[in-house]
Amino acid sequence: MQRRHFMVTLGALGAGYAFLPGRAMAAFEVTRTEAEWREMLTPLQYEVMREEGTERAFTSPLDKNYEDGTYHCRGCDLPLYSSAHKYDSKTGWPSFWKALPDAIGTKPDRKLFTVRTECHCRRCGSHLGHIFDDGPQPTGKRHCLNGVSLVFKAA
User: Fold this and answer.
1) CA angle (43 as vertex; 22, 56 as ends), nearest 5
2) If we measure between CA atoms, which residue out of 154, 155, 133, 130 comes closest to residue 144?
3) Rounded distance, CA 21 to CA 39, Å?
4) Quick check: helix, strand or coil at residue 9?
5) CA–CA separation, 152 and 65 (whole Å)
6) What is the mean pLDDT of residues 118-124?
């Protein structure tokens, strides 16, 4: 096989991979260029929200915030979580037992040699954190979030 044919075949296979079930590219209502995201976010916010990073535990002031209000997406201002659903998980990250209706999207995260459930803003795709099955009732879920992805708005 000639090198050019090999490269074309390889490219076609790679492009097809993106459209396999569970690998489809998501289209979000709010989109920005990489430069626009970098201009509006700090380096840590960009790393977490756009590159699916994680802030260090116990560094977010939102972890210990228990005022009444709503937590919004830093990327597009969509209301995501109510303070009524927040609790102290003692993990060092803001934790909630459920999101607001139609606020988040999820996908499998296969990093770290396990499968976790990643959650992101359904409107702009910004990474929020992960959802675990060790939360309180009534859902039994723990939405473990990066505070840098959120903006708190008091009631």
Assistant:
1) 75
2) 130
3) 33
4) helix
5) 9
6) 98
CATH class of the structural domain 3-154: mainly beta
Tell me which residues are annotated as active site.
144
pLDDT at 26: 61
Residue 37 DSSP symbol = H
What one-letter code names the amino acid at 10? L
List the structure tokens of 38: 């970098």
- Indicate if the pLDDT at residue 6 is higher than 70: no
Identify whether the C-beta of residue 118 lies closer than 8 Å to the C-beta of residue 52: yes
**pLDDT (tens digit per residue) in 43-88:** 999 999 999 999 999 999 999 999 999 999 999 999 999 999 999 9
In angstroms, how far is the first alpha carbon of the chain from the final one?
66
pLDDT tens per residue across span 69-78: 999 999 999 9
Positive or negative, the CA dihedral 86, 88, 91, 92 is positive
